[in-house]
């Protein structure tokens, strides 16, 4: 997962709350840092996405493949 895919996934899942979720919520899965701090510290965006999904109880059906652009035709 690229950073751009991570940010699209967060925007798609959390909408207007995306910025707050990234900067206010600490995630145990990345050392009790916020998602924004973890990304800035170089943690793989896929790991941050999984930690964010675990913490906010995003259903499995909405965790995989999000953030990807539609393939070109």
TrEMBL record:
Matching Pfam families: DUF3046 (PF11248)
Q: What is this protein called?
A: DUF3046 domain-containing protein
């Amino acid at each position: 997962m690229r950073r751009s895919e991570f940010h699209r996934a967060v925007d798609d899942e959390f909408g207007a709350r995306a910025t707050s979720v990234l900067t206010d919520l600490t995630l145990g899965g990345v050392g009790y840092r916020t998602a924004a701090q973890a990304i800035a510290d170089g943690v793989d965006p896929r790991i941050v996405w999984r930690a964010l999904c675990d913490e906010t109880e995003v259903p499995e059906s909405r965790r995989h493949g999000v953030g990807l652009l539609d393939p070109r035709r």
